[in-house]
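Annotators were shown the component list below and the corresponding predicted structure, then asked to write short factual statements about the assembly.
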Amino acid sequence: MSTSTQTVKEPVPRKTFREWFYSRKVQKRLVIGTFVSLPLLLLMIFTYVPFVEMFQFSFYEMKYIGPRTFVGLQNYFEVFTRDDCFKALLLSGYYIVGAFVQLAIALYFASILCFKTTAGGVFKGVLFFPYLVCGIAVGFIFKFFYTRGFVLDTVLQWIGFSQESLPFWLKDTSINNISLVFTSFWKYMGQNMVLFLGAMMSVDSSLYEAANIDGANSWHKFRYIMLPSIKQVIVLNLILSISGSLSAFEPPFVITKGQFGTGTYFVIMDRLAHQNQKLGLASAMAIVLMVIIFVVTILQQVAMKKLFPDNDDNGRIRKVKATKGRKVSV
Amino acid sequence: MTLWLRAKKILFVFIKYATLLFMAFVSLLPLVSCVITALKSKEEYRLTNVMSWPKELSFQNFVETWQLANMGLAFRNSIIVLVFVLVFSIFFGATLAYVLNRFVFPGRGIIKNLFLFAALLPGIAMQVSVYRMMYNLGLINSMFGYIILMTGTDIISVTIFIQFFENIPKELDESGIMDGCTYFGVFFKILFPLLKPAMVTVMILKGVSTYNEYYMANLYLQDKLKHIVVSTSLYTFTGPLGNQYNYICAGVLITMAPALLVFILCQKQIYGGLAAGAVKA
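Structure shown to annotators:
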């Protein structure tokens, strides 16, 4: 059947079906078609269709099952006026500050471990390992850790605090958000450190040798060789931590379930969506945050272009080489 | 003068190791306290302070936790999920990366950007409507559904494979074509075997993140008797068992053990892969 239509279509049947099938053009289309279609289909089903649907939902009052009513921008007004929604976004302040502190500390330990250190590999591993612990397990570990009279209280008593002077780490609203931010620090600091360390290690080692000949000390090496070459990674991580903090979720979700004033934006959204089944409102919340994250990401791109006009790798290597030449000649 | 310099140097070394030791203490303290508590017998846990070392080691907690949380089934299910997610992710990631890296065709830029943009969308927020999609497809409470979802939302492996393809010379493909291979032949016979290092990276990164994933597992695998996985097995200890920390600590340590093993065996690949997969932070 297919061969007969083939002969009808082609006026001069120079090629057989086999030749046609194995021609590069057809093969190219075939390989593109087969290799792209399935992943793209999955991407559509599980990311983009839900994304569009969510945008739709945000204009309705609806549950997972049952009728829905169009309410226009009502949900968006609610996001900005409801007590629990927008105030939750302010909690991200704790997480942003925490993330900055975390990056600074990660940078400190990365620059220490970058130079020769006794048992450096062991320290690196110990600081990094918490990153590989399952989020739920981290939750339980720290529930235990912070329970009154348990791990943290005991250790603080060793160094002289009395039990009465210590707060309830997870219930006291003046401190519980800081306790939660700390769990996130505990898990992710090592990961940041390893990223920084990777960037530092990629610096041409002959630069350090040249600096040694010039009599530079460790601080000079850090300030004039290491820092410039990893500036880009640092700035990128600073900006990423803002969008990461806005979407902070895991610590309050697994440790306090958002009680005692620890419900971050996503914890509230999760509760509205899956417990209260306020699907429209939850969708509006998600869209609002996505817009914010999108804006932050664009600002990030602009900032990166402004700060590092030649941020392609070749440019960096050329610059580094030039510095090296200068250093040696001095 | 030299004395002053030497004093300064000693001070620096002191600060360096003091801070390192302190940070290592901070990292280890929560884990060590778990080990201590898990090794105590029930009575000893009740009667002593959590940080006092157990008088005699008892492994009873591990045995009972294993049964209470149905961890045999949890590990079996987690292994099934891991195997399928990794096989699918590697296959889809490698094939897609091959096409996006080696061919120029209309829509290539759009497809690439669709994947990059998807990495920006926060996964938790998406579940609001993904849940409805899963519900309509009848994929709730199905291992297959969870596996497909974990594969379909995978961006990391594509990025890792694309980066890797950029370093494989195109002359290899061309010599394959000269020898009469089709593009499929080029991919499966020549390039696929060369991807082994990238596959190891994907297996470790994706493996650890799949093994640790709990939010979607809890949301979509609701039948905790049948579809329990390792991460959700820990949910057994919420509710009435919520303050039985001798069990909880043992459970935490059991779930952590495979991650620790992988970490000890493949430290280098994990550190290296982290930089490659850092796109989705």
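Statements collected:
1. The longest strand of chain A covers residues 60-61.
2. The domain at 74-329 of chain A is CATH 1.10.3720.10 (MetI-like fold).
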